[in-house]
Amino acid sequence: MRTLVLNAGYEPLSVVSSRRAALLVMRGKASVLAEEGAPIVSPSALIPRPAVILLHRYVRVARHRPSSPSRRGVLRRDHRLCVYCSRPAGTVDHVVPRARGGQSSWENLVACCSPCNVKKGDKTLDQLGWKLTTTPAAPTQHMWLPQELDAPYESWRPFLDHTAFGAGAAAA
């Protein structure tokens, strides 16, 4: 079981194991906002299993844009859907092929399914007559939130501001 950790300002900070969350509560660093599942049993205590905890002190998190995109980041940004045909994607493609001077940047990399990647090869979109379903861009701030928030547990939903998560939360 995973536990949602909210910063002192009630914004999602991270997702940790239930045991780690219980330890934060026992040490007085957090409060339990929601419980779920069987309690955690220790030799000396029976501890409710926290589903959502709130930190008592605000933790300042430095969120910097990545210097270069990663395969995982591109697939997450595009919701693991091919930007050419909207089928599930498992690979990354350069919109402007590297053989034609395309860079490995957030604006040139997109999620792509294997059949479309093979068909496209080193051709341009104009040569194939293809259009992108979305325009690739550097990730927004919601991309730095824990990946578990893309499909949150039901017990977390009352504590999440869905407007902050973009399309990933709207689909969840």
Automatic annotation (TrEMBL):
Source domain of life: Bacteria
Coiled-coil ranges per UniProt: none
InterPro entries, alphabetized: HNH_5 (IPR029471), HNH_nuc (IPR003615), NA-targeting_endonuclease (IPR052892)
Segments forming domain HNH nuclease: 69-118
Name under which the protein is recorded: HNH nuclease domain-containing protein
